[in-house]
Amino acid sequence: MPEGHTIHRLARALRRDLAEGPLHATSPQGRFAAGAALIDGSTLRSAEAWGKYLFVSTDTGQILHVHLGLIGKFRPVGHPPPPARDTVRLRLGNQGGWWDLVGPARCELVSPDERAAIVAGLGPDPLRPRPDVDRFHDRLRRTSRPIGAVLLDQRVIAGLGNIYRAEVLYLAGLHPSTPANRLAADQRDALWTESVRLLRIGFRTGRILTTDPAEIGRPRSRMRAADAHYVYHREFCRRCGTALGTLHLGGRPIQFCPDCQPALNHRSG
DNA sequence: CGATTATGATTAA
DNA sequence: TAATCCTAATCGC
């Protein structure tokens, strides 16, 4: 589920649902019982996303840090809430709604300093106001690691995951193995611009949609899953039909189109 | 029923 | 780089 757009939508939904009235917090699973007890009875003050990291703070000064990881989910469960499954790490709710957190990589209370340290370690988040684009350019200029690995590094850009990195590279026409420091300024610009554009579409729609509706002949609201991406998890390029290649970069598989994303030429590079 | 897989990240080596 | 963690849906036998 979660690349950056998911966490930003989640933060907004929690703000809307839980703003009013004291929170009830429990840990049916038991693994966050102490933390839930400290949150219980407080009132929500803020919920915000930094890349894939979610912070929820209360009027009593508690700061809840949640990271969904690969398999975590934080979703509304209706009102009144049904009996909780025994995997629910945290159930949070009030008169505005009820939410269950299941399978998170992180669910913990942090101090203001700890929170600041996490945020300081993250690269610019395209979905936040006034992201520091220069920092993104600087990081790319300074490393020879393959751009396909660099885009997954949250210290470089916060919020991209395995789908967006593959699609952003496709849209920029760049081979995933290209050393980041060999990219030209306009290529780095394209990576940033496409990241912003795609994440915004994801935030607006709640889906990772990267294809051009005009090209597909179908509005985003009715986009079929099979047409939603150009290369991610595909066998053939959605645009030109060429058989895709697969690499392992940043510890994860990435598909690319050998025709639309040619490898860096030795003489021009 | 077990194995596999998934939009992630940290730790150890 | 590999091992590890977290959960649930899906698939094959």
Describe this structure in words.
A hairpin with a 2-residue loop joins strand 6 and strand 7. Strands 1-6-7-5 form a four-stranded antiparallel beta sheet. The chain is built from eight helices and ten strands. The mean pLDDT is 96. Helix content is 30%, strand content 19%. It is α+β, with helices and mostly antiparallel strands and 269 residues long. It binds a DNA duplex (13 and 13 nucleotides) through helix 6.
Brief summary:
The chain has 269 residues and is of the alpha+beta class. It contains eight helices and ten strands.
Secondary-structure blueprint:
Elements: H1 4-18, E1 24-26, H2 33-39, E2 44-50, E3 53-58, E4 63-67, E5 73-76, E6 88-94, E7 97-102, E8 106-109, H3 112-120, H4 133-141, H5 147-150, H6 162-172, H7 185-205, H8 213-216, E9 245-249, E10 252-256
Antiparallel strand pairs: 1-6, 2-3, 3-4, 4-8, 5-7, 6-7, 9-10
The structure holds a DNA duplex (13 and 13 nucleotides).
